[in-house]
Amino acid sequence: GKDVCGTHFIRAVVLEKGVLKFLQILLWYISDRKEDFKKELAAKRRQLTQAQRRIEELDRLFKRIYEDNISGKINDSRFQKLSADYEKEQAELTEKMQLWEQEITKQEEEAESIEQFIRRAKKYPELTELTPAVLHDLVNKVYVCAPDKSSGHRVQDVRISLACIGFLPESIITEMVNHAVKSRTA
After folding, report:
1. What is the pLDDT of residue 100?
2. Which helix (H) or strand (E) holds 139?
3. What tens digit of pLDDT does each residue of 105-140 get?
4. Closest CA to 160 of 10, 9, 23, 28
5. Per-residue DSSP letters for 25-79?
């Protein structure tokens, strides 16, 4: 009867507070870290450009030692040693570049989803309550997992799938929470 409704309501309120808190911490974290993300991306792009230049330089060096070998300026064994070194360095750089390109693409896609999320969140400069509109704009789904009885806690594990972004990795959530704790106490 009534009692079930009561506890259900309390649980809903606790859940709502949890979701609101999560969104507040997230938006705070994003706005604080936004410049860092941009810097990281710029640094990766610079690395990529430098690697590209070095690869081109190695091509030129290879041509030069090839010509020097033909004209007799450097002997065959020296040429073989140098060309092997250049080829090895080029192969390593090419491999690194592919990895960096993938990372950059992934980060750019992530940045785009975060931007979309921020654009939606800007409608709510003061995120003080969880209205249906806020939920609709910022949250895809809230999953409540069964409480873990073994730990003796009644706290339910809540997983939030965000609009545009989806689920955040655990590592980011931990970082966000630590960030909030640090900023609050600072």
Report:
1. 95
2. strand 139-145
3. 999 998 899 889 988 998 888 888 888 888 889 998
4. 23
5. HHHHHHHHHHHHHHHHHHHHHHHHHHHHHHHHHHHHHHHHHHHHHHTTSS-HHHH
Residue 21's nearest CA partner among 176, 168, 144, 136 is 176
- List Cβ neighbours of 49 (8 Å cut-off, separation of 6 or more): none
Rounded to 10 deg, the angle between the 76-121 and 2-70 helix axes is 150
End-to-end alpha-carbon separation of the chain, Å?
48
Nearest to 158, CA basis, from 168, 170, 145: 145
Instruction: State how far Cα 164 lies from the chain centre.
Output: 14
